[in-house]
Amino acid sequence: MTDIKKQLSNVAFGGSWSEEILNTAGLNAALSVIFQAADDCVERDVATAELDQALEFIRTKVGKGSQLAAQFLKAVRCPNQDVRKHEAMRIAQMINRWSGR
After folding, report:
1. Cα–Cα distance list, 39 to 14, 80, 96 (Å)
2. How far, CA to CA in Å, does 8 sit from each of 3, 24, 53?
3. Three-class SS state of 77
4. What is the pLDDT of residues 49-59, one digit of tens each?
5. pTM of the prediction?
6. What is the distance between the alpha carbons of residues 29 and 49, in angstroms, rounded to a whole number?
7. Which end of the chain is less enclosed by CB atoms within 10 A, N or C?
């Protein structure tokens, strides 16, 4: 993400397109982290700084992002492993839909 910001700062002309590129790249990165966490939540503790950053992006950029981020965190902390993965994946897909993808 930082590399994209650096590359775009070197462009001689600006515009809303550069902000859109940053938003799209940030969303793609956040969704990738969230889906990976949902997939891995049974095998390991996925509550990492990287997941926190991804969910913070969702909170600020996606409608109902705060609610969805809270639901996702609740899902990955569920003590029942089968329910944990199912709910985490379900919420990840909801986040994906609410992000407009």
Report:
1. 38, 15, 15
2. 9, 13, 22
3. coil
4. 999 999 999 99
5. 0.78
6. 14
7. C
Q: Return the domain boundaries, the chain.
A: 17-98
**How far is the C-alpha of 86 from the C-alpha of 95, rounded, in Å?**
14
> What's the length of the chain?
101
pLDDT in tens, 53-94: 999 999 998 889 999 999 999 999 999 998 999 999 999 999
Gap between the Cα atoms of 35 and 75, Å rounded: 13
Give the type of residue at 80. Answer: N
Contact 75, 95 (CB under 8 A): no
Q: Which residues contact 91 (CB under 8 A, 6 or more apart)?
A: 38, 68, 71, 72, 75
